Amino acid sequence: MDVSTVELQWWILAVLLYGVGDYVTTVLAVRRADVIEANPAVVALLSDQPGPVGFGLLKGGALVVCFLGFLAISESPIAIGVPVGIALLGGLVTLSNAAMIVRTD
Q: Which residues belong to any copy of the DUF5658 domain (predicted)?
């Protein structure tokens, strides 16, 4: 269950992009009356304009579940794909949200 330095770096990037970046840009975007959440899972669990507390708990919970899944397969050579995938997804949705914010200004 050792986490390598490279894996740790990817997890930090994943938390920054998916956890912080997506959280901040989503909360800022859905505060606008004309912007709604596009993720159907978030809409089903929270609403089309999720509040910051509920959305933060959902993001944190998702990261915990992903990290536990990573730990379960940490000996596998594909384990690094978990934080890499989360970081890439986080970067994509953060950029998409930021573009939405800029467009609606």
A: 13-102
